[in-house]
Specification:
- The protein is α/β, with parallel strands linked by helices.
- The protein folds into two domains: 260 residues, no CATH class; 85 residues, no CATH class.
- The strands form three sheets. Strands 4-1-2-3-5-8-7-6-9-12 form a ten-stranded mixed β-sheet. Strands 10-11 form a two-stranded antiparallel ribbon.
- Strand 10 and strand 11 form a beta hairpin.
- Helix 10 packs antiparallel against helix 11 and helix 10 crosses helix 12.
């Protein structure tokens, strides 16, 4: 990628893999600068995911941590620049999406609008994510692993107030809405595990529930939050729940699930990774459709602009990793049983929503020899 910093390339690659190219947009622009003359549109955010009514705003910054200063002073200054300034960028991005959804472009000259529909403000669900670079080694030397500690008693500007801040410890950072704070290692860990839009957003929602709890919650690492997610299940809702029932009645909770090493050795975690391998066929199918739609090379197209075809492709991409595993396996089974040279069809219900269904069609391509 040309024109991007190493940190932006890192985040953009993760975004492409997790959210796929149709919905993952690095460095979107707003037409507030001198766009027509020098292509000076103003950058909205470092990475934006627009997926139906959900918009994920990423702001990432690389700020060097000054190890020659007293750690409390160095932390508060680093935190203000790396996190505080990113939160301001996200606040501005939120405001622009809410007020000027028709003035969002993919190029600095503001000549090409983003080819996906921006939801109405009344339906818009905004998710705020800050990614911090330049602190991995320092985190690894002060904490158990290269991850922030989380303590929801710390709020707002207290993060960078020298008298109130706690080095390498993150609480509730918000600018009207909750902001998720990751460092380089933890965003990579989370996005490689929750690598569909549906899974990542649900993890963010569960994470916010935990860290904005009325109880005093202290978590020793991001991997501990992930393990809470994997080990928690709400039978009434039939879904993951990050708040264990053991928390009931407790006024203050310290969460230590054993860190990254326990997570990576968890047999259930390893088995899931193995079983998920087939699901990436579904990702490849979506990316193939998206590439040809966005580049105008799709055959037998029934739309005039890519934005017209996006809802149909988004339907395929609205699936979780588990759902993609089931759908990909069903397609593979259908394909392997198909008779060469003949047409074939298969009807497949959505594994988690019986109101949705897929029809797989196999149409042989006959070559005409002249």
């Amino acid at each position: 990628m040309t024109g991007f910093t190493d940190e932006e390339v890192f985040l953009n690659n993760l975004g492409d893999n997790s959210f796929l190219k149709f919905w993952s947009w690095p460095n979107l622009f707003r037409d507030q600068g001198d766009c027509s003359n020098k292509g000076d549109g103003k950058e909205i955010c470092d990475l934006t995911v627009v997926f139906g009514d959900d918009i994920i705003l990423f702001s990432d910054k690389k700020i060097k941590f000054n190890t020659s200063k007293d750690v409390k002073i160095a932390w508060s200054r680093w935190c203000r620049r790396a996190i505080g300034n990113s939160v301001k960028q996200i606040k501005g991005a939120r405001r622009w999406f809410e007020q000027y959804p028709n003035r969002i472009y993919v190029d600095s000259k503001c000549s090409q609008k983003i080819p996906v529909s921006i939801p109405d403000k009344s339906k818009m669900r905004l998710h705020n994510v800050v990614v911090c670079h330049g602190i991995e080694e320092v985190l690894g030397s002060y904490n158990r692993e290269a991850s922030f500690i989380f303590d929801n008693a710390i709020r707002g500007d207290s993060h960078w107030d020298e008298s109130e801040s706690k080095p390498f410890c993150i609480g509730q950072v918000f600018e009207g809405n909750f902001v998720h704070i990751f460092n380089e290692s933890t965003i990579e860990l989370v996005l490689r595990e929750f690598d569909t839009t549906k899974d990542f957003i649900y993890y963010l929602q569960q994470r916010e529930v935990l860290l904005s709890s009325d109880k005093h919650i202290r978590v020793l690492s991001e991997s501990d939050i992930m393990q809470l997610y994997y080990e928690g299940f709400d039978e009434e809702k039939e879904g993951r729940s990050i708040i264990p029932k053991e928390f009931d009645g407790a006024g203050s909770v310290v969460i230590d699930m054993g860190g990254i090493h326990r997570l990576l050795k968890n047999p259930s975690f390893l088995a899931k990774k193995q079983e998920d391998r087939i699901s990436y066929f579904w990702d490849a199918l979506i990316e193939s459709f998206s590439f040809h739609i966005l580049n105008g090379t799709a055959e037998h197209k029934s739309w005039e602009h890519p934005i017209d075809a996006e809802p149909g492709i988004r339907f395929l991409a609205s699936t979780s990793r588990f759902e993609r595993r089931i759908l990909a396996a069903a397609f593979r089974d259908f394909y392997q049983k198909a008779i060469p040279g003949q047409r074939g069809t298969r009807f497949c219900l959505d594994p988690t929503n019986k109101e949705n269904a897929y029809v797989f069609c196999l149409v042989p391509k006959h070559h005409v020899v002249v």
